[in-house]
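Lab manual, section 2.4: Encoding a predicted structure.

Procedure: take the sequence of the chain (368 residues), apply the prediction step described in section 2.3, and record the output as structure tokens. A sample record is shown.
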Amino acid sequence: MTGSSGVLWLRLAPQRPVVEAHLRHVRGRFRAAGWRIAGGMDEPEPAGALAVMDEAWAEPLPEVAELLARAEAPDRWRLPRVNGGTGPQDWPVPTGPYTALDYERMALPRGAAGTSVPVPKGAWSGFAVAAAEDAEALLAAGWPPDLGSMALVPEARLYRYADPAAHERRELDPHIPAGARTLVDVGCGHGLLGGRHRGTGRRVIGVEPDWDLAREAARRLDLVLPVGAEVAFEALRPEVDCMVFADVLEHTSDPAGVLEKAARVLAPSGRIVASLPNSAWAPVLRALAAGRWDPTLAGVQARDHLAVMTPASFRRMAAECGLRVTREIPVEVPLPRWQRWWSWLLARTAGGARRDLLAMQWIAILER
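Recorded output:
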């Protein structure tokens, strides 16, 4: 598409910094590939292929848009399949993609796309492409178009992330003591986790610096502090029975300082439950071996991560903060057999632990 007049139309008004950073990445990828960028609700002047994105959690590639514009589907929009979607739009790949390198290899077919199928009712990916000869007529008909005027191209694939703030984090429930009278959920997001644990005799306090998320969490929790963790701990009274960091510490610029302040307000018999992404995960190391470190919208290499975490480094950091890791629970996903063997060989030659390479993230239980 380099040198062409294709247009990427972003119909989005994101509020969250991580989404805006992701859209800067998308704009940059398309601009570098020769696309012009249009934004907002004003329809762009169609000139060449037109790609439309109105779903912030999608990860389109310029190469996918080029392929869709060439697909043989006269007078139709083209939609790629989606990983992480539901129903007809699901991308049934048993493993991955785990990194941007994996996604790029899996998003495009080996040969040129040419087939298309009707879009089932209710299927939508948040991203569509019109070929040059179709763009002007489709824009004149209005947006969004009826799904009957659209077609899936089975060979092309689009990855769509889930919003991390909307995860319920039920895998952490078994590690929160039933007898904890005060529970502090740091980085509580929408308050879905804490809301389940709020009950008779238990007070749940949320910490959430994003004001929009904090307002929503306040409907589910007893109290929400709309500030960062370091400031919140100054306001908390000591003797907190349980504190939860659900993929939060890696988003702080000084995770050791946050843990140290958390330990000061923790009851002598209190517990910290932390889940953390594993930067030593085998797919990430494989991408590094290929010379790639690509920030993504979410996941182990999320664009808003400020600190790198591995199980071994976290144990040392916790000890420096006056905390002891009493238990580690790896959270594994099914990796291909060859990648598990590769992990074993890498750990053996480097003197590491193979289990530390196989877990995408892990749950750490800490005590004073």
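Check your result against the sample. Residues 164-367 form a domain with the Rossmann fold fold (CATH 3.40.50.150).
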